[in-house]
Amino acid sequence: MRDVYVVSGGVSKFAKARPDKTFQPMIKEAYDYALKDIGLDFKQGIELIDGTVASYFSDHFLRQLMGGAMAQDYLGMDPKPNKRIEGGGATGGLCFQGGWESIASGRMDVCLSYGWETMSHVNTWKGNEFIALASDVSFDYPVGGFYSGYYAMMVVRHMKEYGTKVEQMALVSVKNHNNAFHNPYAQKRRKITIEDVRNSEMVAWPLTMLDICVMSDGAAAILFASEEGLNKLEKASGQRLQPTKVTGVGSGMDAMRMADRPHADVILLPHEKPEDYKGLKYPGVHSFRSGRMASKLAYQMAGITNPLQEIDFVELHDAYTSSEIQTYEDMGLCKYGEGGKFVESGAPFMPGLDYGYKFPEQGSVPVNPSGGLIACGHPVGATGLMQAVFAHWQLQNTIGKHFGDPTLQVKNAKRGAIHSHAGTGTYVTVSILEKGF
Question: In this predicted structure, what is the pLDDT of residue 165?
Fold first, then answer.
Protein backbone atom coordinates (compact mmCIF):
# COMPACT_ATOMS: atom_id res chain seq x y z
CA MET A 1 0.00 0.00 0.00
CA ARG A 2 1.01 3.59 -0.59
CA ASP A 3 0.99 6.38 1.99
CA VAL A 4 -2.22 8.43 1.89
CA TYR A 5 -2.53 12.11 2.73
CA VAL A 6 -5.51 14.36 3.41
CA VAL A 7 -4.59 17.54 1.56
CA SER A 8 -7.66 19.69 2.10
CA GLY A 9 -11.28 19.69 3.16
CA GLY A 10 -14.41 21.80 3.25
CA VAL A 11 -17.74 21.82 5.06
CA SER A 12 -20.97 23.56 4.14
CA LYS A 13 -22.99 25.28 6.82
CA PHE A 14 -25.00 22.62 8.69
CA ALA A 15 -28.60 23.66 9.27
CA LYS A 16 -32.05 22.31 10.02
CA ALA A 17 -32.86 23.21 6.42
CA ARG A 18 -31.01 24.68 3.44
CA PRO A 19 -33.82 26.00 1.22
CA ASP A 20 -31.28 28.24 -0.52
CA LYS A 21 -29.61 25.34 -2.35
CA THR A 22 -30.30 21.94 -3.86
CA PHE A 23 -27.90 19.16 -2.96
CA GLN A 24 -25.46 19.69 -5.88
CA PRO A 25 -24.52 23.34 -5.10
CA MET A 26 -24.42 22.46 -1.39
CA ILE A 27 -21.76 19.84 -2.18
CA LYS A 28 -19.96 22.38 -4.37
CA GLU A 29 -19.97 24.82 -1.45
CA ALA A 30 -17.81 22.36 0.53
CA TYR A 31 -15.73 21.36 -2.49
CA ASP A 32 -15.00 24.95 -3.56
CA TYR A 33 -13.79 25.72 -0.04
CA ALA A 34 -11.43 22.73 -0.13
CA LEU A 35 -9.96 23.89 -3.45
CA LYS A 36 -9.65 27.53 -2.42
CA ASP A 37 -7.88 26.59 0.81
CA ILE A 38 -4.96 25.18 -1.19
CA GLY A 39 -4.98 27.85 -3.87
CA LEU A 40 -6.70 25.93 -6.67
CA ASP A 41 -9.61 26.92 -8.86
CA PHE A 42 -12.47 24.85 -10.26
CA LYS A 43 -10.76 24.16 -13.60
CA GLN A 44 -7.58 22.93 -11.89
CA GLY A 45 -9.65 20.62 -9.70
CA ILE A 46 -11.16 18.99 -12.79
CA GLU A 47 -7.69 18.51 -14.29
CA LEU A 48 -5.98 17.11 -11.19
CA ILE A 49 -8.60 14.87 -9.54
CA ASP A 50 -8.54 11.30 -10.87
CA GLY A 51 -11.93 10.21 -9.53
CA THR A 52 -14.46 10.58 -6.75
CA VAL A 53 -16.33 8.72 -4.01
CA ALA A 54 -19.81 9.96 -3.10
CA SER A 55 -21.85 9.22 0.01
CA TYR A 56 -25.42 9.81 1.07
CA PHE A 57 -27.47 7.70 3.44
CA SER A 58 -30.94 7.60 1.97
CA ASP A 59 -32.50 7.76 -1.49
CA HIS A 60 -35.77 8.45 0.37
CA PHE A 61 -34.72 11.88 1.66
CA LEU A 62 -33.51 12.88 -1.79
CA ARG A 63 -36.32 11.13 -3.70
CA GLN A 64 -33.68 10.55 -6.32
CA LEU A 65 -31.67 7.48 -7.22
CA MET A 66 -28.20 8.10 -8.67
CA GLY A 67 -27.60 11.27 -6.65
CA GLY A 68 -23.87 10.54 -6.78
CA ALA A 69 -23.95 10.54 -10.56
CA MET A 70 -25.78 13.87 -10.59
CA ALA A 71 -23.26 15.43 -8.18
CA GLN A 72 -20.35 14.06 -10.23
CA ASP A 73 -21.76 15.75 -13.33
CA TYR A 74 -22.37 19.03 -11.46
CA LEU A 75 -18.74 19.08 -10.25
CA GLY A 76 -17.53 18.68 -13.84
CA MET A 77 -15.91 15.30 -13.13
CA ASP A 78 -17.51 13.25 -15.93
CA PRO A 79 -16.34 10.89 -17.40
CA LYS A 80 -13.95 10.08 -14.52
CA PRO A 81 -14.68 7.15 -12.16
CA ASN A 82 -17.16 7.53 -9.33
CA LYS A 83 -18.85 5.22 -6.83
CA ARG A 84 -21.53 5.80 -4.23
CA ILE A 85 -21.15 4.42 -0.68
CA GLU A 86 -23.96 3.84 1.82
CA GLY A 87 -23.76 2.30 5.28
CA GLY A 88 -26.33 3.85 7.59
CA GLY A 89 -24.94 6.33 10.09
CA ALA A 90 -21.39 5.27 9.17
CA THR A 91 -21.84 6.33 5.53
CA GLY A 92 -19.46 9.30 5.78
CA GLY A 93 -16.82 7.28 7.64
CA LEU A 94 -17.02 4.54 5.01
CA CYS A 95 -16.71 7.18 2.28
CA PHE A 96 -13.57 8.50 3.99
CA GLN A 97 -12.08 5.02 3.98
CA GLY A 98 -13.22 4.53 0.36
CA GLY A 99 -11.19 7.58 -0.65
CA TRP A 100 -8.24 6.29 1.34
CA GLU A 101 -8.47 2.92 -0.45
CA SER A 102 -8.49 4.61 -3.88
CA ILE A 103 -5.10 6.19 -3.11
CA ALA A 104 -3.55 3.38 -1.05
CA SER A 105 -4.30 0.85 -3.81
CA GLY A 106 -2.55 2.92 -6.46
CA ARG A 107 -5.73 3.34 -8.46
CA MET A 108 -5.65 7.14 -8.11
CA ASP A 109 -3.14 9.83 -7.16
CA VAL A 110 -5.77 12.43 -6.24
CA CYS A 111 -9.27 11.45 -5.06
CA LEU A 112 -12.21 13.53 -3.89
CA SER A 113 -14.58 12.07 -1.27
CA TYR A 114 -17.77 14.04 -0.73
CA GLY A 115 -21.02 13.40 1.10
CA TRP A 116 -24.29 15.11 1.94
CA GLU A 117 -27.82 14.72 3.22
CA THR A 118 -30.98 16.80 2.77
CA MET A 119 -33.10 15.58 5.67
CA SER A 120 -35.32 18.67 5.77
CA HIS A 121 -37.28 17.48 2.75
CA VAL A 122 -39.53 15.43 5.05
CA ASN A 123 -41.16 15.92 8.45
CA THR A 124 -39.15 14.78 11.47
CA TRP A 125 -41.40 11.76 12.11
CA LYS A 126 -40.97 10.65 8.50
CA GLY A 127 -37.21 11.18 8.73
CA ASN A 128 -37.10 8.95 11.80
CA GLU A 129 -39.06 6.34 9.86
CA PHE A 130 -36.53 6.46 7.00
CA ILE A 131 -33.61 6.17 9.42
CA ALA A 132 -35.33 3.23 11.14
CA LEU A 133 -35.17 1.34 7.84
CA ALA A 134 -31.50 0.79 8.76
CA SER A 135 -32.73 -1.66 11.40
CA ASP A 136 -34.07 -5.15 10.66
CA VAL A 137 -37.40 -4.35 9.02
CA SER A 138 -38.61 -7.95 9.41
CA PHE A 139 -38.09 -8.18 13.18
CA ASP A 140 -37.13 -4.94 14.95
CA TYR A 141 -38.94 -2.26 12.97
CA PRO A 142 -42.51 -3.68 13.33
CA VAL A 143 -42.33 -3.54 17.13
CA GLY A 144 -41.73 0.21 17.34
CA GLY A 145 -38.27 0.37 15.87
CA PHE A 146 -37.27 4.01 16.04
CA TYR A 147 -33.64 4.40 17.06
CA SER A 148 -34.33 6.51 20.13
CA GLY A 149 -36.12 3.48 21.58
CA TYR A 150 -33.19 1.18 20.80
CA TYR A 151 -30.65 3.53 22.37
CA ALA A 152 -32.85 4.11 25.42
CA MET A 153 -32.94 0.35 25.97
CA MET A 154 -29.17 0.08 25.57
CA VAL A 155 -28.37 2.85 28.03
CA VAL A 156 -30.83 1.49 30.58
CA ARG A 157 -28.82 -1.72 30.46
CA HIS A 158 -25.60 0.30 30.76
CA MET A 159 -27.07 2.05 33.80
CA LYS A 160 -28.03 -1.27 35.40
CA GLU A 161 -24.72 -2.95 34.58
CA TYR A 162 -22.40 -0.09 35.54
CA GLY A 163 -24.36 2.50 37.52
CA THR A 164 -24.24 5.16 34.79
CA LYS A 165 -26.27 8.26 35.71
CA VAL A 166 -28.51 10.55 33.64
CA GLU A 167 -26.46 13.52 34.88
CA GLN A 168 -23.33 11.99 33.33
CA MET A 169 -25.15 11.67 30.02
CA ALA A 170 -26.31 15.28 30.34
CA LEU A 171 -22.68 16.37 30.76
CA VAL A 172 -21.95 15.02 27.27
CA SER A 173 -24.64 17.29 25.86
CA VAL A 174 -23.36 20.26 27.89
CA LYS A 175 -19.85 19.66 26.52
CA ASN A 176 -20.87 19.31 22.90
CA HIS A 177 -23.32 22.24 22.85
CA ASN A 178 -20.84 24.54 24.57
CA ASN A 179 -18.15 23.50 22.08
CA ALA A 180 -20.45 24.13 19.11
CA PHE A 181 -21.09 27.65 20.39
CA HIS A 182 -17.62 28.49 19.00
CA ASN A 183 -18.08 26.59 15.69
CA PRO A 184 -19.61 28.74 12.90
CA TYR A 185 -20.49 25.63 10.86
CA ALA A 186 -22.60 24.18 13.68
CA GLN A 187 -26.37 23.87 13.51
CA LYS A 188 -27.03 24.47 17.24
CA ARG A 189 -24.94 27.20 18.86
CA ARG A 190 -26.02 27.81 22.43
CA LYS A 191 -24.64 27.13 25.88
CA ILE A 192 -26.66 24.78 28.08
CA THR A 193 -26.59 23.21 31.55
CA ILE A 194 -27.32 19.77 33.01
CA GLU A 195 -30.70 21.12 34.12
CA ASP A 196 -31.50 22.23 30.55
CA VAL A 197 -30.84 18.69 29.30
CA ARG A 198 -32.92 16.95 31.95
CA ASN A 199 -35.78 19.45 31.68
CA SER A 200 -36.05 19.21 27.89
CA GLU A 201 -38.80 17.09 26.37
CA MET A 202 -38.55 13.37 27.15
CA VAL A 203 -38.29 11.24 24.00
CA ALA A 204 -37.56 7.70 25.26
CA TRP A 205 -36.57 7.44 28.92
CA PRO A 206 -33.95 8.40 29.94
CA LEU A 207 -33.15 10.22 26.65
CA THR A 208 -34.45 13.78 26.30
CA MET A 209 -34.44 16.02 23.24
CA LEU A 210 -31.03 17.42 24.25
CA ASP A 211 -29.57 13.91 24.56
CA ILE A 212 -30.21 13.23 20.87
CA CYS A 213 -28.58 14.48 17.66
CA VAL A 214 -30.38 16.73 15.21
CA MET A 215 -31.68 16.15 11.69
CA SER A 216 -29.66 18.27 9.30
CA ASP A 217 -28.93 19.47 5.79
CA GLY A 218 -25.26 19.76 4.91
CA ALA A 219 -22.27 18.56 2.90
CA ALA A 220 -18.56 17.93 3.39
CA ALA A 221 -15.61 17.11 1.11
CA ILE A 222 -12.12 15.68 1.60
CA LEU A 223 -9.26 15.75 -0.94
CA PHE A 224 -6.87 12.77 -0.70
CA ALA A 225 -3.51 12.37 -2.43
CA SER A 226 -0.59 10.02 -2.73
CA GLU A 227 2.91 11.44 -2.45
CA GLU A 228 2.96 11.82 -6.22
CA GLY A 229 -0.47 13.44 -6.16
CA LEU A 230 0.66 15.79 -3.39
CA ASN A 231 3.56 16.91 -5.60
CA LYS A 232 1.13 17.59 -8.47
CA LEU A 233 -1.13 19.65 -6.22
CA GLU A 234 1.77 21.65 -4.81
CA LYS A 235 3.07 22.38 -8.29
CA ALA A 236 -0.36 23.53 -9.45
CA SER A 237 -1.01 25.68 -6.39
CA GLY A 238 2.50 27.10 -6.27
CA GLN A 239 2.76 26.60 -2.52
CA ARG A 240 3.97 24.13 0.09
CA LEU A 241 0.92 22.32 1.47
CA GLN A 242 0.29 21.07 5.00
CA PRO A 243 -1.15 17.56 4.61
CA THR A 244 -2.43 15.17 7.23
CA LYS A 245 -1.34 11.55 6.94
CA VAL A 246 -3.86 8.72 7.35
CA THR A 247 -1.94 6.18 9.45
CA GLY A 248 -4.69 3.80 10.53
CA VAL A 249 -8.08 2.59 9.33
CA GLY A 250 -10.32 0.02 10.94
CA SER A 251 -13.90 -1.15 10.64
CA GLY A 252 -16.16 -3.67 12.30
CA MET A 253 -19.65 -5.11 12.00
CA ASP A 254 -22.16 -6.88 14.21
CA ALA A 255 -25.49 -8.64 13.82
CA MET A 256 -28.38 -6.34 12.88
CA ARG A 257 -30.57 -7.83 15.60
CA MET A 258 -29.11 -7.21 19.05
CA ALA A 259 -30.67 -10.47 20.25
CA ASP A 260 -28.39 -12.33 17.82
CA ARG A 261 -25.18 -10.95 19.36
CA PRO A 262 -23.46 -13.69 21.38
CA HIS A 263 -21.81 -13.28 24.76
CA ALA A 264 -18.09 -13.87 24.48
CA ASP A 265 -14.75 -12.61 25.74
CA VAL A 266 -14.01 -8.90 25.40
CA ILE A 267 -11.85 -8.03 22.38
CA LEU A 268 -8.79 -6.68 24.18
CA LEU A 269 -6.76 -3.63 23.24
CA PRO A 270 -2.96 -3.67 23.81
CA HIS A 271 -3.16 -1.94 27.21
CA GLU A 272 -5.85 -4.28 28.60
CA LYS A 273 -5.76 -7.70 30.31
CA PRO A 274 -8.38 -10.49 30.41
CA GLU A 275 -8.83 -10.07 34.17
CA ASP A 276 -10.00 -6.48 33.59
CA TYR A 277 -13.35 -7.87 32.42
CA LYS A 278 -13.73 -11.17 34.23
CA GLY A 279 -17.39 -12.19 34.29
CA LEU A 280 -18.60 -9.39 32.00
CA LYS A 281 -21.37 -10.47 29.62
CA TYR A 282 -20.02 -8.95 26.43
CA PRO A 283 -21.16 -7.29 24.29
CA GLY A 284 -24.68 -7.60 25.64
CA VAL A 285 -26.69 -4.55 24.65
CA HIS A 286 -24.49 -2.20 26.68
CA SER A 287 -21.47 -2.18 24.32
CA PHE A 288 -20.61 -2.06 20.62
CA ARG A 289 -18.40 -5.00 19.65
CA SER A 290 -18.05 -3.57 16.13
CA GLY A 291 -16.67 -0.34 17.62
CA ARG A 292 -14.10 -2.29 19.61
CA MET A 293 -13.02 -4.23 16.48
CA ALA A 294 -12.75 -1.05 14.38
CA SER A 295 -10.66 0.59 17.12
CA LYS A 296 -8.39 -2.42 17.52
CA LEU A 297 -7.62 -2.60 13.79
CA ALA A 298 -7.06 1.15 13.41
CA TYR A 299 -4.78 1.27 16.47
CA GLN A 300 -2.85 -1.76 15.28
CA MET A 301 -2.22 -0.16 11.88
CA ALA A 302 -1.23 3.18 13.43
CA GLY A 303 0.99 1.62 16.10
CA ILE A 304 -1.11 2.90 19.01
CA THR A 305 -0.74 0.90 22.24
CA ASN A 306 -2.60 3.18 24.67
CA PRO A 307 -5.20 5.46 23.03
CA LEU A 308 -5.77 7.64 26.09
CA GLN A 309 -2.10 8.58 26.12
CA GLU A 310 -1.38 8.57 22.38
CA ILE A 311 -4.42 10.30 20.83
CA ASP A 312 -4.75 14.07 21.23
CA PHE A 313 -8.46 14.38 20.35
CA VAL A 314 -11.38 12.36 18.98
CA GLU A 315 -14.26 13.34 16.71
CA LEU A 316 -16.79 10.71 17.79
CA HIS A 317 -20.22 9.70 16.49
CA ASP A 318 -22.48 10.94 19.31
CA ALA A 319 -25.94 10.29 17.87
CA TYR A 320 -26.95 10.02 21.54
CA THR A 321 -25.19 11.18 24.69
CA SER A 322 -25.40 7.57 25.84
CA SER A 323 -23.61 6.26 22.74
CA GLU A 324 -20.76 8.71 23.30
CA ILE A 325 -20.29 7.26 26.79
CA GLN A 326 -20.49 3.71 25.42
CA THR A 327 -17.95 4.56 22.73
CA TYR A 328 -15.39 5.95 25.21
CA GLU A 329 -15.24 2.37 26.45
CA ASP A 330 -15.22 0.72 23.01
CA MET A 331 -12.30 2.93 21.93
CA GLY A 332 -10.36 2.16 25.10
CA LEU A 333 -10.31 5.72 26.43
CA CYS A 334 -11.44 4.11 29.68
CA LYS A 335 -12.39 0.58 30.78
CA TYR A 336 -15.82 -0.89 30.16
CA GLY A 337 -18.11 0.43 32.87
CA GLU A 338 -16.14 3.63 33.45
CA GLY A 339 -17.60 5.83 30.68
CA GLY A 340 -19.84 7.78 33.03
CA LYS A 341 -16.99 8.50 35.43
CA PHE A 342 -14.77 9.41 32.45
CA VAL A 343 -17.05 12.26 31.34
CA GLU A 344 -17.56 13.30 34.97
CA SER A 345 -13.78 13.65 35.35
CA GLY A 346 -13.74 16.26 32.57
CA ALA A 347 -11.21 14.33 30.48
CA PRO A 348 -13.19 14.70 27.19
CA PHE A 349 -13.83 18.44 27.67
CA MET A 350 -11.73 21.15 26.00
CA PRO A 351 -8.97 22.46 28.25
CA GLY A 352 -9.38 26.02 29.46
CA LEU A 353 -13.01 26.39 28.31
CA ASP A 354 -15.55 27.42 30.96
CA TYR A 355 -18.48 24.98 30.94
CA GLY A 356 -19.94 26.22 34.23
CA TYR A 357 -18.66 23.17 36.10
CA LYS A 358 -15.32 22.22 37.64
CA PHE A 359 -13.57 19.02 36.55
CA PRO A 360 -10.46 17.40 38.07
CA GLU A 361 -9.00 16.23 34.71
CA GLN A 362 -10.43 18.72 32.22
CA GLY A 363 -9.05 18.38 28.71
CA SER A 364 -6.77 15.35 28.88
CA VAL A 365 -8.29 14.02 25.61
CA PRO A 366 -10.91 16.36 24.07
CA VAL A 367 -13.82 14.51 22.44
CA ASN A 368 -15.96 16.28 19.85
CA PRO A 369 -14.36 19.72 20.01
CA SER A 370 -16.53 20.49 16.95
CA GLY A 371 -19.74 19.95 18.92
CA GLY A 372 -20.33 16.51 17.46
CA LEU A 373 -23.57 15.28 15.91
CA ILE A 374 -25.61 16.47 18.88
CA ALA A 375 -24.83 20.14 18.31
CA CYS A 376 -22.82 20.58 15.11
CA GLY A 377 -25.29 18.45 13.13
CA HIS A 378 -25.80 15.06 11.50
CA PRO A 379 -26.46 15.22 7.72
CA VAL A 380 -25.71 11.52 7.63
CA GLY A 381 -23.73 11.11 4.40
CA ALA A 382 -21.57 14.12 5.29
CA THR A 383 -21.02 13.50 9.00
CA GLY A 384 -17.96 11.23 8.91
CA LEU A 385 -16.34 13.52 6.34
CA MET A 386 -17.12 16.58 8.47
CA GLN A 387 -15.25 14.88 11.31
CA ALA A 388 -12.27 14.34 8.99
CA VAL A 389 -12.26 17.98 7.85
CA PHE A 390 -12.26 19.25 11.43
CA ALA A 391 -9.58 16.72 12.42
CA HIS A 392 -7.44 17.85 9.47
CA TRP A 393 -7.76 21.49 10.55
CA GLN A 394 -6.92 20.56 14.15
CA LEU A 395 -3.69 18.85 13.04
CA GLN A 396 -2.81 21.79 10.79
CA ASN A 397 -3.36 24.12 13.76
CA THR A 398 -5.72 26.18 11.56
CA ILE A 399 -9.00 26.04 13.52
CA GLY A 400 -8.66 29.76 14.26
CA LYS A 401 -8.31 30.49 10.54
CA HIS A 402 -11.34 28.44 9.49
CA PHE A 403 -13.62 29.20 12.45
CA GLY A 404 -12.55 32.81 12.92
CA ASP A 405 -12.03 31.87 16.57
CA PRO A 406 -9.17 29.77 18.01
CA THR A 407 -11.11 28.64 21.11
CA LEU A 408 -11.61 25.08 19.84
CA GLN A 409 -8.02 24.55 18.70
CA VAL A 410 -6.44 21.58 20.49
CA LYS A 411 -2.95 22.85 21.23
CA ASN A 412 0.01 20.91 19.80
CA ALA A 413 -2.26 18.21 18.33
CA LYS A 414 -0.25 15.59 16.47
CA ARG A 415 -2.68 12.67 16.24
CA GLY A 416 -6.47 12.45 16.14
CA ALA A 417 -9.15 9.81 15.63
CA ILE A 418 -12.48 9.96 13.79
CA HIS A 419 -15.26 7.48 14.53
CA SER A 420 -18.44 6.71 12.54
CA HIS A 421 -21.25 4.47 13.73
CA ALA A 422 -24.33 2.94 12.08
CA GLY A 423 -27.47 1.29 13.35
CA THR A 424 -27.19 -0.15 16.85
CA GLY A 425 -23.49 -0.67 16.24
CA THR A 426 -23.94 -2.65 13.02
CA TYR A 427 -21.23 -0.76 11.10
CA VAL A 428 -18.42 1.18 12.80
CA THR A 429 -15.32 2.81 11.29
CA VAL A 430 -12.33 4.33 13.06
CA SER A 431 -9.59 6.21 11.23
CA ILE A 432 -6.40 7.73 12.60
CA LEU A 433 -4.93 10.95 11.20
CA GLU A 434 -1.54 12.41 12.07
CA LYS A 435 0.30 15.60 11.31
CA GLY A 436 2.01 14.98 7.98
CA PHE A 437 4.36 17.94 7.55
Answer: 98
pLDDT at 193 over 90: yes
CATH superfamily of domain region 4-122+217-237: Thiolase/Chalcone synthase (3.40.47.10)
The CA dihedral of 346, 350, 355, 359, to the nearest 10 degrees, is: 20
Burial of 356 (0-12, 13-18, 19+ CB in 10 A): exposed
Rounded to the nearest 10 degrees, the angle between the axes of helix 380-396 and helix 91-104 is: 60
Residue % of the chain over a pLDDT of 90: 92
At residue 207, the pLDDT reads 98
Give the distance, in angstroms, between the CA of residue 299 and the centroid of all CA atoms in the same chain. 17
* Pairing of β 82-85 and β 51-55: parallel
Cα separation of 416 and 297, whole Å? Answer: 15
CA distance 186 to 369: 11
8 A C-beta contact, residue 8 and residue 35: yes
How far apart CA 198 and CA 185 sit, in angstroms, is 26
Half-sphere exposure for 210 (CA within 13 Å, toward CB): 26
Domain residue spans of the chain: 4-122+217-237
Distance CA 373, CA 187 (A): 9
pLDDT tens-digit series, residues 75-112: 999 999 999 999 999 999 999 999 999 999 999 999 99
Q: Are 340 and 348 in contact (CB under 8 A)?
A: no
Residue 144 has pLDDT above 70, yes or no: no
**Maximum CA pair distance of the chain?**
60
Radius of gyration of the chain (CA): 20
